[in-house]
Amino acid sequence: MEDMDQPTGLSRKRSREDMSSISSQNNSHQPSSTSATSDNTDSEMKEPPTSRPKSQAPNITGFNLEAIFHPKFENENQNDQQIRKDMITKVSSQQGYLEVTLKHSGSLMLWSGGQKFYSKNSTSNLFTAVGEILLLQHFARAWGTTEEDIPFVRQKVQECSDYIEQHRLCLSFEVVSTVLGHHGDIPNRNYLMLIAVADKNQERFFSTAELTAFAQKFRLPHNDAWLYASKESVEQLFELYDTTKETGMASSVALWLDNSADGGIVASMYPHAVFQGEILEGLVIRYVPYRLKDGVAQVDTLEEMKRLGDASKEIWKQVPPEKTLNLSPTGNVWNLDLSAISEDESAFAEKVHAALDAFHGTQKRQTTITSIKDLGVDILGIAKEIIGSNNANGESVRIAKLIQQLVDLNIKMSFKVIQETSSAAVGEKATRYIAIIHIHHDESFQKYYRKTKDTDAMSLFRGFSIELMNFVPDEKLVKRQESSASIEAALDHVHLNQKVSSSEEKLMLKMKFLPYMVRTFICRNGLSKLQVSKTAFEEYALGQLVKWKISEEGINKWMPFFKGYAKYCQNLQVTSNKYLHTYNEFSKLFQSGEFQVEDSGNGTFRGVILMVGLKKEELAALSNYFAKELSCSFQKTDCSSLTRDDFVRSLQRSEGGLICTANITDSMKKFKKLCKDFQDDVYTVLVGCSESELESSLIESQAASNEVRKTLGIAKGLRKTKSQLHMISKASLSTTMEGLKDQEDVVNAIKSLRDAGAPKEEDKRFGLLVFFPAIPGQGKSSLCGGLSRENLDISADRKLIIREGDKVQGKYYRQIEKEIISTPACVFIADKNVPPPSWHTISDLCLKSRSIAVAVVPDVLKDTIVGTGLDKCSYPLSLHFLAVCILRVLQRPSSTHNGKLDISCKEACMVVVKFYCFYRHKTIDHFNFSDRQFGTHNGKVIKIPFFKDRNTVDMDLPPDLYSTLCEAVQLQTLEDQNKQVYDSKKNDMENNLRSCILKYEAHLQSLVAPIEESMSVFQEKLKSIVGSIRDLQPCEIDCLSKMNPSEKNPRIKLASLDIDESVVRMALESIQKDNAKVRFYLNKREQFRKNDPDNIGKARFIKNTHCTFAHTSRNNQKQLRETFDHLIGESVEVHIVSFYYAPDSAALGLEFPSLNTLGSNISFPKPQNNFHHVTIFCGAKVMAHMSNDLPERCEKSEAELVILKEPIKVKGTFSFWHS
């Protein structure tokens, strides 16, 4: 089909996003992207002061809803069985019926008519572009047959668009495609499904009846719906789900729904099995109440659905599922084959946007990001003005109150302001401003819901966009009233339900099927567990199956599959957005009998074998033979490359041992250092290393006398090793397995190693790791001091281990790791302050040791704000708590504390304040450890009485004490932000704190609960938790755990500032316009743009353009997390100031005009590399990091430099890259 003329409806702004933006779309509707039109935040809740003069700033006097989607499902964590009972009760008493729909898996897109397409937190990006094309193609399929029909199809698109705009509707679609990342299965066709219609006037969503009627009016694709109107059919529905939960596929599920639904069926134009495929995510079951008339329930709602069902059959006849478009990779928007053009990922986004540009022409909608600061608009200030105004219209006031409520609840949110320009008339442009409200944390939806429940407050929508308006309220009110009336007329007899009660809203179930869950929640979301080890992945998979209450038969079926999958993926680079290719290939191999992994059991060797000879090349056959006989999983040939993780993995369940070969003269320094912590698990095998053998070999090779002496001395030292030693003669070496198995010293060594390294009978019970998210002075050592096996009722086959942080020599977590791993099922008490930067370490320990984390926290937490304006920060601990902790430290007599933190410590008070500041930007929601995953399980929480009265934290502190504490926290914050703080200032602050705390010593002491009470509560609650896990096997205990697959701790490779590749391209285009040499350089290399950016064997352009701030080669994991954790997702302004290029590499030079993030004003460090840059091109076999040398090469005339006359301003976003 041809593009007949310029459109009058849909459009977008060109945004050159490449396919790398899809990689973050894992288990949510819409991923975040790093482009200018991405989901990254633009302005934090704490808005910066405006920079535009008020006379030039838009005169914003109100807000309008622009795009909205359903709030978070409110009863996802409620009891499934109780909801079922309530549904059965209501249906059997004829108060309503159940409606069942299928869950399609894709990406969310919202359409407010015209050219206004939105993803969940953005607009004008690759996701909306793909969705817009699929919507246009749907209209072509629904209303057209040939090219001649295109004008009529255009007319239908415009009618639908006009209707949406006139009635202030917002349509939500599930965009199901092969090109936007993988979900449960690769769909058979690209399509979209209308899943919600929002009436912005009435702040509500259409019922299924209304949505279906509206969809049929324009032949939009609504979902299938099955209706259940009797107790018997509802009970049958639940029974059918329970019996097919583990095996249900789309065709079979649809068939039994057809056969059991007694209230009618409304058929979709897009049957799931035909369009998406057989892998079905699940069912959505809603209770729909009948209307009441004179207090009597009416069943005409159900009759309406039956009428709609009849209409759907007629549409099905006119647009049967087998009807297809003649798609082409070179087509226009009406017939462009998205799947075909996506095969070239580097050009996919370009082709999509080019097709839309050609379609829209000069009428396209232009959108640009503009910061609130540059716009000169204070959204929070406007909200306050609206609330206090008598002239603002109702919708503006309700939105303003919602914003104010979010601020009051300390909910982290961001505003992304979009300036939209569209054609209003010939030669004229109309400008609007859209603010997209991004809620950072899912738990905030529940927090807002709890606060506003049973009130008339506006719902906290997802995909929440508002228009910043300047309008006359009365005129708007008229339009709203007219549109409400016209909607009712347009939908004829379909009843417009008013908002139902909160109890009715809760009667909804999402019921998923196992074939989908194992793909998405285990094989995709578990990829990070594979980075830890195969064992971690297997335990994660088992935990999920048990959590889902899968039958023993189901577990026995799937666990061998997951073990094989773990082995298959071990040496592959599997990404979450493309994981299904790997999954499908493995499935074929597994079904053919490959990768049928058996448990290696107790026959597997555990530990590290260092095999040393004069030449390690001669040891290869022997190493392979040992690995085969001892079932070792790992072999290495460079002992200096071994890490602590290698040693730990060699001891873990089902991993097997490690063999490392080495030359006798190799440096053993690093290896020996590691051996200190693993002495009992390291075994040395010396091959041909007796004194006589070495002398003979060295003389034969004509080695120098000093080399002979040196080698003999090394061998002598190795023979004195404290680890188990085995000597094998050089004569026993053979290049064949047959030759080795008959050598007596080889056989004896293997037998001895098998016995020594054989694991003891595996203890599969879970242990406990008790830790304290605390600050000094909280009282943890007092609590731990009273613990014993007896008062915790710990059985004789478990150990109680208490390790005080100040008594452990060396790095605490490194020292305790091996102790926990080597003492399975123990109760380990980590008597140490564990602030947020160390929580991931606790998770890693739990993962490696099969332990359940138990967090010990004060029973009264309070979100506390310290500072004002841009310096305002939140803390989850009250200033009362901080004051008492400082007092307790000052009450410690001199030289009585193992860590020397007592009255004699010169900076004792500020040390406590420093620990308090580790919790900066955290809230009490972060202390919901029972909802936070540690290892493979959610944590448990023990709340300890701290204050006598729980209301203490709501009481006022003495003014001078309050102000002194605030000043101390703010001073520490400045130091943490690397701002200059003079020692004299810190000394004065320390003295002020001491005098003020001691001044109120009696008052503060009177607030605190007796330590005996705290100890008693701690012991009793810990005893209860110990009892709850006693003698329980993993499968049983996992049933008690709620796993959250989104909480992961993969290994960080680098801290990056991501800059969208499309922005980098535009910068290069700008540079080459004025420089012929650069233009020639880039044009000559354009042929390499299609090459895989990850294939270093070929010349290539870098797609994931970024500036490296810190790399794991120079920082450990703790340093990376402590420095950058709080910056992830934050955006900063970047100036491109230069372009370096050489024959084999090129990079853009960067400067940072400010070392504070946009909006939130959080300070950040400079990149650790001297040359701050973005690599854009690498030649064949040239690594990206080699671009660091470009400035030096430029000085040697080996590279060229272009300095820009004016910097190009772009935006970057912090992220972690994982290895």
TrEMBL record:
Biological processes, Gene Ontology terms: tRNA splicing, via endonucleolytic cleavage and ligation
Domain of life: Eukaryota
An example Gene Ontology molecular-function term: RNA ligase (ATP) activity
Biased composition (Polar residues): 20-31
Annotated region (Disordered), positions in chain: 1-59
PANTHER family, alphabetized: TRNA LIGASE 1
The protein, known as: tRNA ligase phosphodiesterase domain-containing protein
Originating organism: Chaetoceros tenuissimus
Taxonomic path: Eukaryota, Sar, Stramenopiles, Ochrophyta, Bacillariophyta
